[in-house]
Amino acid sequence: MTQPLTLRRDAEIAASTLPALLAKADHLASGVLLGEHGRRRAGQGDDFWQYRPMMQGDSLRSIDWRRSAKGDAQFVRDREWQIAQSVILWLDQGASMQFAGTKDTESKASRARVLMLAMAILLIRGGERVGLTGFTLPPRRGEQQILRLAEAFSTDDAQDYAPPEARGMIPHAKAVFASDFLGDIDAVEAALAKAADRGVRGVLLQVLDPMEEAFPFEGRTIFESVGRTISFETLKAKDLRDRYLDRLNERRDRLQQLCRATGWQFNCHHTNESAQSALLWMWRAFDGGAAR
C-alpha cells in the first residue's frame, strides 16, 4: 500500500514538471505564425478570406458587386473555412525515450513532450479539437485541454518500448505520432493500417539522439536498455557499427514506406537540432499534406 507521504511526494514531483513543460511548449508554439488559423481555405464561416474571379457554378448571390464594379470582371467574396477537426495524438512514453547520449543533450522524451504539447497548443488555439488516442482523453477545445494534455505527457511508461495506442481512432480525424520507433515495427504497422482503414491521416515524427545515429563505441562495451530489461556485452563494439547502422536505416526506410502506403508524412528529428524547426515541419506537413 502506498504511504500518504510517498504519494504526496510523487504527486508534487509530477506536478512540478507541468509549469516548465507548459512554458517551453508555449514559447515554442509562439514562434509559429498562425494568423487567425494556419489552415486557411474557403468554406462556411463568417470571416472574409479573399476575392476571386467568378467561376462556373457560383451563384449570382455570391458576387461582390462593390468589388466587381472596379473592373470588368465579376468577383466572388470567399469566406474562411471554420469547421473544427478532431486531432488525436500519441506520444511514446516508454523507457527508451528517456535516453540522452550526453549530459548536455536533451532526452528524447523531453524533446518529444515539448514538441507534441506545442503542436497541441497551435491546433487548439487554431480552433481544433485535440486529444489522445485511446479513450482516456477524447478531443476537446480550450485552454483546459492543454493542461490535461500536459499532465498526460508528464507520465512515463515502465516498459522499454511502448507500442502505439491504436484504439479510439476517430473516423476521418487527423493524427500526430511521436516516438523513436525503435520497438516492434509490427505494432506501428498495425496502428497505421487501422488508422488508414478509418480514413485517419497524419504525421509520424521519429525522435532520435545523435549518438544513436553516430554509434561512437569501440572496444569492450555493455549495451543496456534504459529499463534495464535487456543487456548485451561485446569486446569489439566497433565491429557492430555497420550492422547497427544498416538496421537503423532499414527501420527508417520501413517507416517511410508505411507512411507512403497509408498517406501519412514522415520526418526524423534529432535532439541536438532546433526544436522550432521540427515544430515548423510538423505544422507545415500537417497543414499542407496530412491534414487535407
Automatic annotation (TrEMBL):
InterPro entries: DUF58. Residues 50-252 form the DUF58 domain. PANTHER family: BLL2464 PROTEIN. This is DUF58 domain-containing protein. It comes from Thalassococcus halodurans.
